[in-house]
Amino acid sequence: MNPELITMLKETANMFAFLALELTLLFLVISYLVGMLQEFVTPQKVQSILSSRNGKGYLIAALLGSITPFCSCSTIPFLKGLLRARAGFGPMMVFLFASPLLNPIIIGLFVVTFGVKVAVFYFVMAMGVSVIAGFTLEKLGFERYIRKEAYEQQELGASAGNNKQSSAPSSCCDTTPAPVASSCCGVTSEPVTSSCCGTQPAPVASLCCDDRSSILPPQVRTEHRWLRVWRTTWKDFKQVSPYLFVGVLLGSFIYGFIPTEFIVNYAGEATWYAIPLAAVIGIPLYIRAEAVIPLSAALVQKGMAMGSVMALIIGSAGASITEVILLKSIFKNQMIAAFLGVILAMAIASGFLYGLVF
Q1: Contact 244, 290 (CB under 8 A)
Q2: Which one, out of 62, 86, 120, 140, has a CA that is 20 to 30 A from the CA of 112?
Q3: Mind giving me the DSSP string for 96-141?
């Protein structure tokens, strides 16, 4: 066998083993810590906070986006929930921009792969542009480009709630059957009398037949929480691992087989169009940041400009064709164009600004 080919294969295999082990351990550790954090910051709490329309909502939305490990497409269902909760438009858009770009896993990968300075620069740019874009779009009145259908479920729910309230007893002393045992073993109904009549029935507590977690000691409940988070972490890793390992494999292949001169000629520091081209190419690729970062590491080692890498990562993680298709059910074309414009502007500005700062 050709000695040069053997050398390339060895370099590829060594790089794959190193990156796969390093990024797997990093993903599991950070994902587990994020899972523990999400035990206290649930999606319901995030939605409740973003429903507020005060001035702090923009920064809070960016910070919450930075701890939620959503990809560009998985942000859409959450966005629909925010719309139906009548969340502030500006903070909602900040969350839409920031969530797929900022999470502890991505920042951890940046730190390990490119260093702390690059990770801080990426974090500041992604958060800063997300907040500015959300604020600007709200002030320009882009909320009018949300489709009316996006609010329909919330309005129907409110209507149903009003109909349900209309059947309530007209007198506070009326007795109506209401369930007092809500266990999975059965539901029984007994008269419930309002307290204004002087009668207050004792509360009835019930447990599911097989669920006695509420009477377990605190130590056991804590152990169950830690175990539950670990299971979720492992499940998330199994879902992400194909993307992660594909990115590692592509990066290892580039590292071992693609000539350095080829990368330098078409994506090096001297190529002025490399940054906007990388930003535009990134969107249709739809590569998760967890996959594109190890891929980019190999490109950098081969001579690709870091500014171009930054544009590629933001473009691929921040938007995708699939996400645009999903957004069509929520936004009109003007809003979708603005969304893509923000992602492209963020990617290109980050690429050129990186060259000026560093």
Answers
A1: yes
A2: 62
A3: HHHTTT--HHHHHHHHHHH-HHHHHHHHHHHHHHHHHHHHHHHHTT
Query: pTM higher than 0.90, yes or no?
Result: no
Q: Write out the two tokens for 319.
A: 């938007």
Which run of H or of E encompasses 190?
Answer: strand 189-192
CB distance 206 to 182 below 8 Å: yes
Residue 120 has which token pair? 């801080």
- Please count the other Cβ atoms lying within 10 Å of the Cβ belonging to residue 315: 30
What are 61-102's pLDDT values in tens digits? 888 777 765 555 567 767 777 777 777 888 889 988 988 888
With a CB cutoff of 8 Å and minimum separation 6, the contacts of 68 are 38, 46, 78, 99, 103
Q: Which residues of the chain have pLDDT under 70?
A: 1, 34, 38, 41-55, 68-74, 77, 152-223, 247, 251, 260, 263, 285-290, 322
CB-count exposure of residue 203 (10 Å: 0-12, 13-18, 19+)? exposed
Token pair in block for residue 202: 């004792």
Using DSSP's 3-state secondary structure scheme, residue 54 falls into coil
- Please name which of 340, 358, 277 lies closest in space to residue 311, comparing C-alpha atoms: 277
Contact (CB, 8 A) for 111 and 354: no
CA distance 132 to 127: 9
- Tokens 């809070």 map to which residue? 60
Token pair listed for 338: 């603005």
Report yes or no: 335 and 295 within 8 Å, Cβ to Cβ.
no
3-state SS, one letter per residue, for 8-47: HHHHHHHHHHHHHHHHHHHHHHHHHHHHHHHCCCCHHHHH
The helix (run of H) or strand (run of E) holding residue 325 is helix 321-327
Enumerate long-range contacts of 218-224, CB under 8 Å, 24 or more apart: none
What residue has token string 């882009």? 142
